[in-house]
Fold these 2 entries.
Entry 1:
Amino acid sequence: MFEISMEKDPALSLLYALSAGAISLLCISHYYFGHFDVLLINIIAIAIFTFAALFLYLNRDQEHSNYINVFTLTAIALLMQFQLSLAPKLTMYWIYTFPVLSYFVLPLSWAFALNTALMFSSFSQLMFMFDMHESLRMILIYILIGMCSLCYAYLNVLKQKSLLTLAVTDYQSGAYNSRQLIKKLQQESARSLVTKRTLSLFAITIADYQQILDIHGQDISEKVLKAFRLKLISLLRAGDEIFHSGQGTFYILLPNCPEEGVLVLKERLVAQLMDLQWRDVGEIQINTGLATLKENEAPEDFFQRVNHFINKQQKTALRLLSFNE
Amino acid sequence: MDKIITPKHTKIFFCAIGGTVLGLIAYIDFSQYQYVTSLITAGMAAMLIINGLCLLTGQYSQKQSYLDWISIVLLAVFAYIASEHQHGQHIYWIYFYPIAAFFLFQLRIALLLLFLYIPLVIYIIFNFAPVLEQPEILFSFAGISIVVYFLAMVKARTNKLLEPLIGTDLETGAQLEKFLRPALNTEITRAEREGTGLLLMYLQLDQALKAVRKEGREQLVHECAQAISKQLRIFDHYYRLNDDNFAVVLPHATSEDAQAASKKMIADMSPTLHSNIKVGITSLNVGDTADSLIELVTQELTHV
């Protein structure tokens, strides 16, 4: 529900491109020193990194990025294993870079699994190439680099998670986020119980938000959300709080407002918002849902009731549209 | 899982495992009669273990900055000495430097440290490593440095993006001061519209906490915040203000309720603080704004 784009893909694309460039330079030295077998493997690695860099540069689907990252790193790990049998000492230096790269690129659990597999596979080969002490030392160094990378990446994840948990504002629209809405609903329903005053929740959704996002991109859709929120603020009572779900649905919490009052507000808001021309996207279709807190109703049920209304209206709007066509 | 494994636990875990692994490497070096490198590795292991123990006993915060600096300088020196022996067999130490720099320091300082280290790395590689391995070692060092830099950069960007969106103070769980005025304005509007009461309570703790040392002070502030939150209703809000004071917004409350709550709050706080804590309570009157309420409540401060 509350996802924030870390925009990691452009950084990864650049990183893969840099890796391909660095290995290309390395290829010159391999050619110069006559390591032709290693040179061939490095050329394959360049092809893999270049493909991954281009794919991530052009790709817009986060789901695909994860798979392409796993594919890239697995392919590189396999190449490392193959090269280890040809030039063990030289390859170990390359293998030392793998933990840092994998913990940056992949989710922690995937990276951990891949690193563990690489470690056992390398150790099983090294045992036959060096004496026990030497191969143990190499693997221990690998473990140490892996440990450093894992802890660093894990601390970053922890920090990011705690920041996301504590965030109250939706970065796209500037309104409070949905986590804050749930918290506020609990507070306000408790307050309503004490004061015996009504509490209403009004939801207003931009029906074609996903379409706007797909056609006009992130920047324009963020601008629309911000403008929409500002327009809502100008039409509401002072002190009414606005929340955004992150998916184009805004919730307005209306304390001490009976159902009739919300109905009037709904008519006013719909009339004002439907007539507006949004600079970059033209007209927008909106759906609404509203509910007033019932006696002894749980905040979660109250919230679900509003969402149910909004879904129902969305379905009706779609049916009407198909009927008109 | 996340609640159990905190950053502190992760660091202690790293120190324990890292210390053990380094100890094993030191033992291998020792068994191969490489006494200098064995000593260096054992020294690094001891440093990690000491670091872990400092973390475990809670003495880390006061020694943090100089321990970090000592670690990074020693790592650079150790890498040089270790590489000098056994024909660059132990040159792998140079890989740990960029990781440690970005792990221990902020992005800018880490980047500066890395740039300062690069000439030494080039000197180490081209003087101690076997000629055939030099390009590969240089490539690995550059690879590790760039990836760690990217990791630190993404982290810094993410934090920069998320930090302004946070509403709660990490140490105490209280809301941040910047949210006090907007929340107070909202409550004033609501109270005036509904014709209900609104109280603002101010707890001045900075005088009481003045004599306490920094580490103990953080713990005490945390306890005070818990004592305050324990007495609040679900719809009351409390804010941590500069200088470790707290403000509490109490809608639908009377002065008697607020006074009783403040007494209970203070009773739950550390007895050493009681005599120096001042509390102010003010209620909303016609024409009041958030600023005037805050100003009034600071004038009302008295010992409870």
Entry 2:
Amino acid sequence: MTLHAEWTKLRTSPGTAWLLLAIVALTATLGALADAATRCPSAGCGLDPARVGLTGVYLSQAVVVILGALAIGAEYNSGMIKVTLSAMPRRLNVLAAKAVIITGLVLASATLAVLGSLSAGLLILPGRGFTTAHGFTMVDGPVLRAYAGTVLYLALIGLLSLGAAAALRDTAAAIGIVLGLLYVLPIVATVVSSATWHRHLEQLAPMTAGLAIQDTVGLRDLPITPWAGLGVLAAWAAAALLAGALVLRLRDA
Amino acid sequence: MTTDFRLLVRSEWTKFRTVRGWVAGIVIAAFLMVGIALLDHSECGGTVTPGGPVVMGVGCSAPLGPGGVAVTDSFYFAHQPLAGNGSITARVTSLTLAGGHGSLSAWSKAGIIIKASTRPGSAYAAMLVTAGHGVRMQYDFTGDIAGRQGAVSPASPRWLRLTRSGDTITGSESADGTHWTTVGAVRLSGLPAIAQAGLFAATPGASQTTSQSVTGSSAAGALTLAAARFDHVRLKGSQPGRAWAGDAVGGSSPGQGLRRAGSTFIVTGTGDIAPYTGGTPVERTLLGAFAALIAVIVVGAMFMTSEYRRGLIRVTLSASPGRVRVLAAKAAVIGALAFGAGLAGGTAALLLGERLLRSNGNFLVPATPLTQVRAVAGTAAVLALAAVLALALGTMLRNSAGAITGVTVAIVLPYFLAIGLPTLPAAIGDWLLRVTPAAGFAIQQTVTRYPQVAASYTPGSGYYPLAPWAGFAVLCGYVAVALTLAGFMLRRRDA
């Protein structure tokens, strides 16, 4: 019942459909543009076709952040949360239901988005030098892992954002903090010049670690293995959801 | 400013200061700038990657040239004292690789030089041939005048001449030793009565690879040697009876030296006589601005959107029906606050960060006080503009989520993509830093790009594709357009 109520709320919010559409459009379009702009003139050009094709995720994840944060933040901002919690006194169920809905919606749109990038890559990349002659296969195990993993990556970003908004009880602050974690942390991490610590930060920052799932080339030199990287992001999302659950449970709405 | 507008600004300021979260956001922005500068514990001479290429001693120190510019001044110098006015003439018949792998880098150079002394960083003027850029007249490290193009070879030698007359040195070149063309005449300050005149050769590391980080780069490469063959060497005005002395200016390296065979001089040297492009740019201490940006963007957007959320906007607009003026007052308040936070945080970050970097042995690229003021005040202005942009977008969207994400994605993401995404072609990265609001970060640049030095001039090492004020103007343009649109929509729509 809680699930159904949350689904109805999110379904009937005016922005949801646009946000989901934006995820698909931005991922696929930017991916296609990056495909078209890249050249791999020879074998061993060091470029990763999966990474290139999935460049759009850098932008579309921001839309996922909005979607996740609004799912609960909008209720706090409008005072609707009091109605919600009066109707559903089991607060954790409310958060869990929101998490399930967000995961489902993001998984669905991210799958479409990633399929769009994949088709763009299959069409464009071979013409840009990513050919079998240069040692690339367009669809194999690692490539499928990169694309499927990106779907999971976006779902986890949605959960991270939902958890942050539940913990901070404010959309704006949550979006600011999550975007800061994603985009600013890797920039600021460069003040750490010690190679060892820098590597640690790359292993810990949610975006750099999580997007390791997209790597299909040079796997031995990565700061973190693809699945472990996605695990790091999952830990971030779990921590945010836990904080959100605690705040929701313990504080007055 | 009319009294009316002053009242409006005042009421907006009252609104601002009574919301604890907004004040906290602005204070946090200032502290983030300082805090992140204090995290920088870089030490000089660190390795890039374990087991990676050996890093030469870059970034730890550099002599200063006549203009206060950091310079590289190491080469092999075969010289004699030149008292007062006089001239030196020589014919160069070849410039070749004498040690190391690969080929000579295009800016390998050899020729004749008149230099104040053998101390690195002292004033000089030189006529030289290069491996890939023809004949040049170079002086005092930053000066570079192009002469005839084409490579030097025994079949196509170059005659070079430098004439000193007082403080003025005239450089000329010739193909045959009889028909001379003047390449340039330059005034050197601080040239003593007895200068050193002679032959030199230098080559920067041939196989240079540069590792990129946000604001620092380190070059690594195999040491190469360049050998130049001279004949018809003639000194006029030199103290008679003096012999040629050989010196490795700026530290000796194996393989450098002077060999003579009859009237032929072979000078073998390594190094470079050029502006130094390593070191840590001072704006590295301002990296915290990226974190501060997020804070001021959040506050800037909410300053407007929370009025819509609570319906307060109707009260505000009933009290002051000049809607555009309300927007202007809000922009003035949030802009001034973000600027103040950026200025306070940035000044502290620069002063403390510079001290910290120096105490860890880093070499900071010298920047004039005016340039440093531009970098700090410019960074503060970028924060102010970002906050105003968020305010304008918040007015248009009436929704903080969209405004915050929109501005962050417009300012921070292009910068991240340009410096942090190896898969993105450099041309696209440069393009992003030209046309997106992220172009504004160019205002932080304190380092100079020298066409006569081959270095990695990437945004990651502090070189932006647009000039500081041009990049800043791009950001200003975005803010102006956004404010205009926001004012227009505020007037046209019901609140």
